[in-house]
Design a protein that fits this description.
The chain is α/β, with parallel strands linked by helices. It is built from 20 helices and 6 strands. The longest helix is centred in the middle third of the chain and has 33 residues, at about 235-270. The termini are far apart.
C-alpha cells in the first residue's frame, strides 16, 4: 500500500503594486482603445480645469499669469514621469502661491524662481531621507477631516464666480450640474465634465449669451516656456532671503502631495511609492523653476476630477493634462478664452460633492464614533477651512490626535498590591504603558510610610518607554530609601531593562 502523495504547499501571491497592475500601466492603456480613450479625455478635462485656477493662483502670488500656467504644464509633465502615484495631478496650487507671494512682492520674480528651485532641492533631500515614512503617523480621523476640508475648500472657491454675475450664469451652472450628475447614469463613454464644458460653451457662443469666461480671468501666453536661470547673486544674503520660504514651500508641498497620494491609494485600492513621490515633487519643482514657473504640488480638486470623475488610472492622463494645457493656452488660446466660467464652476462643484466623505457625517456614524476621534476630525477640517491651508489643518489634527492618544493610554496604567504571604516584603504589580503622561502620577501610588523594609515593584505587565518613567522610578526608590526601605524592580522586558539600566540614577533631580 503506497502512502498518499504529500500535499503541495503554495505561498499566496503578493498583491501587485500599481505599476505591476495591468490596469495601471501606460503600456496597457496604449494597447486598449477603451482605456486609452479614458486617459486622453481625462487629461483634456483636467487641462481645461487647470487653466483658470493657474491664473488665479498667479494673481495670489502677485506674478504674471504665465508663471502659473507654465508651472502647471511643467509640474504635470514632469511628475507624470518621476512621481510615485500614477494618475495624481501636480500643478500650481494656492498653498504654494501663498508661501512664495512675499518673495515675489518684496524681491521680484527672479528671487521667486530661485526660491522654487531651492524648495525643489529641499524636497529631493527630504525624499531621499525618507520623510514619506512619517505618513504612517497620520491617523484615519485626520485623513477624513482632510478629505472633507478639501471638498469644502473646492466648493467655497467657486462661490466668488457666483457673486454679482448675470442671471444666465446661475442657469448655466444648474444645467452643467444636471449634465455632470445625470449623464453618468446614461453612459460613461465620454466624461460628463467634458460634455458639460463643451455643451455650455456651444450654447453661450451660439446664443450670444454674455457671461464671464476663462479669457476674463487673465491674459493667456502666446509663446512656449523657455529655459532660464534666475538673475540673483549667488551669495549668502540671497540664501538668507529665500531659504525660509523655500523650506516652508517644500514642507507644505510635500504634506499636501503625500496626503493626496494616500487619498488616491484609497480610492483606487492600490499602493503607491511615497518616497518616489516625495523626491519626484522636488524634481518637478526644480524643472519648473528653470522654466520660469511659480512652483506647485499635488492639486487635490483636479486629481479627484481625474481619478474619481473621469476614471483615469495611469501616468498618461497626468502627462496629457500638462500637454493639453500648453496646447490649449498657447495654440488655442482664443477658443479656450470663450469657455464660460459657469461650466468650470459646475464641474468643480461636482468634484467637491464627489470628494466629500458623506458617510463620516451621517448621524449613525457620529453616534458610534468616539469623542476623541470626532474632535480630531473636526479640528482638522475646521483649521483647514479657516486658514485655507491644508498643511495647517493636518498638523493641527495630528497634534490633537497625539494628545488624545496620550491621554487615553495614560489612564490604562494600574498599580495593585500583590498578596505574597510575606509580611516583611510588599509587592506592587504595575501594568500598562509607562511614558511621560502615565508615569507622572506613578510616584503617588505607593504607601511609603506604611510599607515594610522591603518593597518589590513587578513590571512584568508594563513597559518603560521614556526617561520620564525612569525618573519616576528613581523618585520612588529615593523616597523609600529616605525611610530605610529597599526597593527591587523585577521582571522588566528586554527593551525596558536596557532603558532602565542606561538611565537609572543618571537623570538628576527634577528630571
Amino acid at each position: 500500500m503506497t502512502s498518499p502523495a504529500p500535499t503541495e504547499l503554495t505561498t499566496p501571491a503578493r498583491p501587485h503594486l500599481p505599476e505591476a497592475d495591468a490596469t495601471h500601466s501606460v503600456l496597457s492603456a496604449l494597447r486598449s482603445p477603451r482605456r486609452l480613450r479614458t486617459e486622453v479625455l481625462a487629461g483634456l478635462v483636467v487641462a481645461l480645469a487647470l487653466i483658470p485656477e493657474a491664473i488665479s493662483f498667479s494673481i495670489i502670488a502677485g506674478v504674471d499669469p504665465r508663471l502659473g500656467l507654465f508651472a502647471s504644464f511643467t509640474m504635470a509633465v514632469t511628475i507624470a514621469v518621476v512621481g510615485g502615484r500614477p494618475a495624481m495631478v501636480s500643478a500650481a496650487t494656492a498653498a504654494v502661491a501663498l508661501v512664495v507671494a512675499p518673495v515675489a512682492r518684496e524681491h521680484g520674480q527672479d528671487y521667486l524662481i530661485a526660491t522654487v528651485i531651492l524648495g525643489g532641492l529641499v524636497q529631493v533631500a527630504l525624499g531621499a531621507l525618507g520623510v514619506a515614512r512619517l505618513m504612517r503617523f497620520v491617523p484615519r480621523s485626520v485623513m477624513v477631516g482632510f478629505v472633507n476640508a478639501l471638498a469644502t475648500l473646492v466648493f467655497l472657491s467657486q462661490l466668488p464666480h457666483l457673486v454679482d454675475v448675470p442671471w444666465a450664469v446661475y442657469a448655466l451652472v444648474a444645467a452643467g450640474l444636471v449634465v455632470v450628475f445625470g449623464l453618468p447614469r446614461l453612459t460613461t463613454v465620454v466624461p460628463a465634465p467634458l460634455v458639460a464644458i463643451l455643451l455650455l460653451t456651444v450654447v453661450t457662443v451660439a446664443a450670444g449669451i454674455s457671461v464671464p469666461t476663462v479669457g476674463d480671468e487673465g491674459e493667456l501666453p502666446e509663446s512656449l516656456p523657455a529655459l532660464l536661470l534666475p538673475d540673483v547673486p549667488l551669495t549668502l544674503e540671497t540664501l538668507r532671503i529665500i531659504a525660509p520660504y523655500a523650506v516652508t514651500m517644500a514642507l507644505v508641498g510635500l504634506l499636501e502631495s503625500l496626503l493626496t497620494a494616500k487619498l488616491v491609494d484609497d480610492i483606487t485600492d492600490t499602493h503607491s511609492d511615497k518616497t518616489r513621490e516625495a523626491w519626484g515633487q522636488g524634481v518637478a519643482n526644480v524643472v519648473t523653476g528653470f522654466f520660469g514657473g511659480m512652483g506647485g504640488c499635488a492639486v487635490i480638486g483636479q486629481t479627484m476630477m481625474n481619478v474619481k470623475a473621469a476614471g483615469a488610472r495611469t501616468r498618461l492622463s497626468t502627462f496629457l493634462a500638462g500637454v493639453f494645457l500648453l496646447v490649449l493656452v498657447v495654440g488655442l488660446g482664443d477658443l479656450v478664452g470663450v469657455i464660460p466660467m459657469a461650466a468650470l464652476v459646475a464641474v468643480m462643484i461636482f468634484v467637491a460633492v464627489a470628494a466629500f466623505d458623506w458617510h463620516s457625517v451621517r448621524p449613525s456614524t457620529l453616534r458610534r464614533m468616539p469623542g476623541s476621534e470626532l474632535v480630531v476630525m473636526l479640528s482638522t477640517a475646521g483649521v483647514t477651512v479657516a486658514t485655507h491651508n491644508l498643511a495647517y489643518g493636518v498638523v493641527c489634527g495630528v497634534l490633537v490626535a497625539m494628545v488624545a492618544f496620550a491621554r487615553r493610554v495614560a489612564h490604562l496604567t494600574d498599580v495593585t498590591v500583590v498578596d505574597t504571604g510575606d509580611e516583611s516584603t510588599r509587592t506592587y504589580a504595575v501594568s500598562g504603558e509607562l511614558f511621560f503622561a502615565s508615569s507622572n502620577d506613578l510616584v503617588y501610588q505607593f504607601d511609603y510610610a506604611g510599607d515594610p523594609s522591603s518593597v518589590v515593584i513587578d513590571l512584568a505587565a508594563a513597559h518603560i518607554w521614556d526617561a520620564s518613567t525612569v525618573a519616576a522610578l528613581d523618585a520612588i526608590t529615593t523616597k523609600y530609601a529616605a525611610r530605610g526601605t529597599t526597593v527591587t524592580i523585577v521582571n522588566l522586558d528586554a527593551d525596558s531593562a536596557r532603558r532602565h539600566e542606561r538611565l537609572a540614577g543618571q537623570l538628576g533631580a527634577g528630571h
